[in-house]
Amino acid sequence: MIALRLPILSFMVASAMALATSARAEPADTLPGARLYQARCGTCHSLDANRIGPAHRGVFDRAAGTAPGYSYSPALKSSGIIWNAANLDQWLQGPQKLVKGSKMYFVVPSASDRAAIIAYLCAASGK
Questions:
Q1: What is the DSSP code string of the chain?
Q2: At a CB cut-off of 8 Å and minimum separation 6, what does 54 contact?
Q3: Shortest CA distance to 85 belongs to which of 105, 110, 114?
Q4: How many angstroms separate the first and last alpha carbons of the chain?
Q5: Nearest to 74 by CA among 113, 101, 37, 39
Q6: Do the domain assignments include residue 77?
Q7: In this structure, what CATH number is given to the domain that contains residue 69?
């Protein structure tokens, strides 16, 4: 009976170790942001592909309206914004308030959700 349980126990320990290792691959504080990003932003955006909205990988320290291959509004292209945590927070509170005439209207009302999404985007930008 013990001989039969050892392979199962070994498998369970190996599986748990693999899960723990994969969870450490992305900083724990960005995991909620990753889930929120997918749930709140993923319909229109992705980290690596332009969709309805532009790709977001590398957004930190990038000039607004300059991601390659995306057709931005003239308002955003001429805004002079360099994306950082503070102005991304403003953007997510009301894109039209920050840059009237931009294409985005979606808002994230929760400050904690915005902070988690911004932390995720920061990590995805290598910052």
A1: -HHHHHHHHHHHHHHHHHHHHHHHHS-GGGHHHHHHIIIIITTT--SSS-SSS---TT-TTPBTT-STT----HHHHTS--B--HHHHHHHHH-HHHHSTT-S-------HHHHHHHHHHHHHHTT-
A2: 45, 67, 70, 72
A3: 114
A4: 52
A5: 101
A6: yes
A7: 1.10.760.10
Q: How many CA atoms lie within 13 A of 17 on its CB side?
A: 6
Task: State the total domains in the chain.
Answer: 1
In a domain, 17, yes or no: no
Classify residue 101: in a domain, yes or no: yes
Is residue 1 assigned to a domain? no
Per-residue pLDDT tens digits for 35-93: 999 999 999 999 999 999 999 999 999 999 999 999 999 999 999 999 999 999 999 99
The residue segments making up the domain with residue 40 are 28-124
> Is the sign of the CA dihedral 49, 50, 53, 57 positive or negative?
positive
